[in-house]
Design brief:
Blueprint lengths: L4 E2 L5 E2 L5 E6 L5 E6 L4 E5 L4 E6 L6 E6 L5 E6 L3 E6 L4 E7 L5 E6 L5 E6 L3 E6 L5 E6 L5 E6 L5 E6 L3 E6 L5 E6 L5 E6 L5 E6 L3 E6 L4 E7 L5 E6 L5 E6 L3 E6 L4 E7 L5 E6 L5 E6 L3 E6 L9
Parallel strand pairs: 1-26
Antiparallel strand pairs: 2-29, 3-4, 4-5, 5-6, 7-8, 8-9, 9-10, 11-12, 12-13, 13-14, 15-16, 16-17, 17-18, 19-20, 20-21, 21-22, 23-24, 24-25, 25-26, 27-28, 28-29
Length: 305
């Protein structure tokens, strides 16, 4: 891939406020987003058209994730709940209640049976997706928990928060396994590699960091953003990363070298969420300008319907 700056043209549009979270379905055909406008929206990736609006939350939707199979989804909100959705009907199946404050992030195990959430009550919580029952509360962060992720084996979860740390937790016991420290400011997002051996973290200290989860050591610091970094994602093959930040860019990184490959410019305000499509060929970004943008990662160009 060659470096460069991409022009802006096409965009998903429909949200009436900041888009906090964007993800792609396992089959690569649909997109799910969550926004400060209190809604979750389902989109067709090919046409970039809205399929339906899911609007049962009573506050900002901060995080969304597809369940395996792509027929259901979870969302986390500032209304202190997580909701499980039937995407065919757009109706909520159940709510998960237990957090005492805003829920920042939600993720689901690879088998779709357990969900993990993180919130402003400084806790990480594990849930049984089938029943909505809280399995356990994981306490140890000293400030708001902003992001959570499962390792592929489903036995361990990763969290990051305003206390500037990442933490590894045992799903079975709820015990804290390790703390990863190195950031000089809040950890806003975490992502786990497909093989479960590495993690990425994005921080207000303007860096993305790559970690070895076996040795619990920092591998690389990815520096290039001119402002806080809000979001980060591994490519499906684990070789590349996307990050987004307050400098209004999405950036593509080579994780073998730590070098920036390309900066994608087009958003008019900070980028709040980034993700890859399952084929690894395209990336999506969303943010404060209320839109979602789809990019060709090889050419650097924005993709029109």
């Amino acid at each position: 891939m060659l470096g460069g700056v991409a022009p802006a043209s096409a965009e998903f549009a429909g949200h009436g406020a900041i888009v906090n979270s964007v993800v792609v379905s396992p089959d690569g055909k649909q997109v799910l987003s969550g926004s400060w406008d209190y809604t979750v929206r389902l989109w067709d990736l090919a046409t970039q058209k809205e399929i339906r609006v899911l609007n049962e939350h009573r506050a900002s939707v901060n995080s969304v994730v597809f369940l395996p199979g792509g027929r259901q989804a979870l969302s986390a909100s500032w209304d202190s709940t997580i909701k499980l959705w039937d995407l065919a009907t757009g109706k909520a199946i159940r709510s998960f209640a237990g957090h005492a404050n805003n829920v920042s992030s939600v993720a689901v195990s690879r088998d779709g049976k357990i969900a993990v959430s993180g919130g402003w009550d400084r806790t990480v919580r594990l849930w049984d997706v089938g029943s909505g029952r809280e399995l356990r509360t994981l306490s140890g962060h000293g400030a708001n928990v902003m992001s959570v992720a499962f390792l592929p084996d489903g036995k361990t979860v990763l969290s990051g928060g305003y206390d500037q740390t990442l933490k590894l937790w045992s799903v079975e016991s709820g015990a804290e396994i390790a703390t990863l420290a190195g950031h000089a400011n809040s950890v806003n997002a975490v992502s786990v590699s497909p093989d479960g051996k590495r993690a990425l973290s994005a921080s207000t200290d303007m860096t993305v960091r790559l970690w070895d989860l076996e040795s619990r050591q920092e591998i690389l610091v990815l520096a290039g953003h001119d402002g806080f970094v809000t979001s980060v994602a591994f490519s499906p093959d684990g070789k590349f990363a996307l990050s987004g930040g307050g400098d209004r860019t999405m950036r593509l990184w080579d994780l073998a070298t730590g070098q920036e490959i390309r900066a994608f410019r087009g958003h008019r305000k900070p980028v709040w969420s980034v993700t890859f499509t399952p084929d690894g060929a395209r990336g999506l970004s969303a943010g404060y300008d209320e839109v979602i943008r789809l990019w060709n990662l090889a050419s650097g160009e924005e993709i029109s319907p």
